[in-house]
Amino acid sequence: MDNIILEKTRISIPPYHELVKDVPAMQMLPAVYRDVMAAFGEEFFTCISEAARVPEPKEMVIIFNPMRVAGTQYIWEFEVKNLIKPDDPRKINWHGQDTSQWAYAGCILLQNGRVSRNH
Asked: Closest Cα to residue 85, out of 64, 110, 57, 62?
């Protein structure tokens, strides 16, 4: 595996225990917890890889947001942004997210004991 060099990159990720502390215990069975942690690890590595792939000029930030709840869904959104790209308010997706600086983004979703990743 090649070394990944992250110059000009800020990372903002709460500790894992903070990310999952508000999920009800009945939803976070041991197997589900393992799946959630595996998804976080894989997405974190992908975020780092995607930030490293962006050509210069760049000023990257990797953000994992705190969990939010939507009905029966527990959602953790993440994004890799290049702050050098101009912020364009016309690039708002149907979730209300400004995508103009994104290099990579998605979410980890827990619903009914199943973990998925969406991009």
From this structure: 57
Whether 66 is in a domain gets the answer yes
Whole-number Å distance between alpha carbons of 96 and 31 = 33
Look at the chain and report how many structural domains it folds into: 1
Its domain, for residue 56, covers 9-118
Residue 53 tokens read as 């792939």
Q: Decide if pLDDT at 42 tops 80.
A: yes
SS3 50: helix
pTM: 0.85
33 in any annotated domain: yes
pLDDT of residue 95: 74
Q: State the Cα–Cα distance between residues 37 and 33, nearest whole angstrom.
A: 6
Give the integer Cα–Cα distance in Å for 119 and 117: 7
